[in-house]
Amino acid sequence: MSNSFLEIKDVTFAVSKLNKVNNVTFDMVKEGEIICLLGPSGIGKTTVLRTIAGLEKIQSGKIILKGKVISSSNFHLEPEKRNIALSFQENSLFPHYSVIDNIKFGSERNKDKKFIYSTNDLINLLHLEDIKKKYPHEISAGEAQRVSLARSLISKPDLLLLDEPFSNIDQSLKEELQKKIKEIINEIKISTIIVTHDSYEAFYMGNKCGIILDQSLKQFDIPYNIYHYPNSIEIVNFLNRGVLIDALVTGEMTLQNEELGIIMGNFVKKQKIGSSVKLLIQPEDLSHDDKSSLRLEVVDRKFRGTNFIYILKTNSNKFIPVLVDSHHAHQHRIKDKFGIRKPIHIDHLVCF
Q1: Which of 14, 90, 215, 287 is least crowded, fewest Cβ atoms below 10 Å from its Cβ?
Q2: Residue 249, strand partner residues
Q3: CA dihedral 72, 75, 76, 77 (to 10 degrees)
Q4: Could you tell me the residue range of the domain that residue 213 belongs to?
């Protein structure tokens, strides 16, 4: 018998033939963890949250919370008995309540459970001071999201479900709120599932992440492993953080690419010598060297503040990203020749 806080066992989440996620299995081992479900819009992520909250029923599998079945093929615990809070992406506030009264409504639930933050604490933490007396129709979508989040937090749920909680919030405020929400969740140990389409957000917020593509959960792991050890070409293409190049396996720790030459490293999965593979090259895998004889043309340059990502074109029209610290001695322009350090060494060789 598993001791996981939350278990999703072979569940198909569906509201229609098109809006479904099939045969999903994952668990939240410890109370207070954050799981992020990542995927493109319309893939069924919100349906997963609605079903866990009890707003949709399941035909197969089980959902188990704190050792008790809350959903199965022959049992459905009513939403109000689950002690699960769901904060929707769209405005779900009570229109006849002010902001502060909407938040106070949440505090009426589970009065016997201790909570270290007061209504005013959350109003201040989420920068809602100037709108606390306004009504939902008088505030922006981003402000409504923050109010809904405060109401959900203060209700002291066993499980908090957040649907794109930062999607309508300005970038200047988003990172600050992500940091604060993560700190609050960790401090008060509220188990949380966050749905998002933003991989940066998922990798920052989540203890573990699940990627949903083509109506199924493709990979569920810690963020580091999903980024560095994607388990399929689908995941590589979705994350869009690298490029796949053709290579020939020439040894137990070496490959050969016609244009980049010998590439050394440790194979994530053992490869047969002599086999042809697709090798994943991520921006941080290659190093810049002005004196190198391996030089490729710069066709694009993306400034990321702390670094640049240069896009280099090979003779076969393959586009390869290379990350360079923005304090590098000189910047390369479009059409410049850009040197890559040889021999190429990549710590982990991900091949398909």
Answers
A1: 90
A2: 255
A3: -110
A4: 6-235
The pair of three-digit structure tokens given for residue 314, joined into one six-digit string: 């090979």
Find the CATH number of the domain harbouring 329.
2.40.50.140
Last residue of a domain, one of 207, 235, 263: 235
Among the candidates 219, 235, 251, a domain finishes at 235
Digit-by-digit pLDDT tens for the chain (352 residues) are: 578 999 999 999 998 877 889 999 999 999 999 999 999 988 899 999 999 999 999 989 999 999 999 999 999 999 999 999 998 877 789 999 999 999 998 877 756 666 778 889 999 999 999 999 999 999 998 899 899 999 999 988 999 999 999 888 888 889 999 999 999 999 989 999 999 999 999 999 999 999 999 999 999 999 999 999 999 999 999 999 899 999 999 999 999 999 999 999 999 999 999 999 999 999 999 999 999 999 999 999 999 888 999 999 998 999 999 999 988 777 899 999 999 999 999 999 999 9
**Do 277 and 227 reside in the same domain of the chain?**
no
Residue 27, SS3 per DSSP: strand
- With CA atoms as reference, report the closest residue to 144 among 173, 103, 205: 103
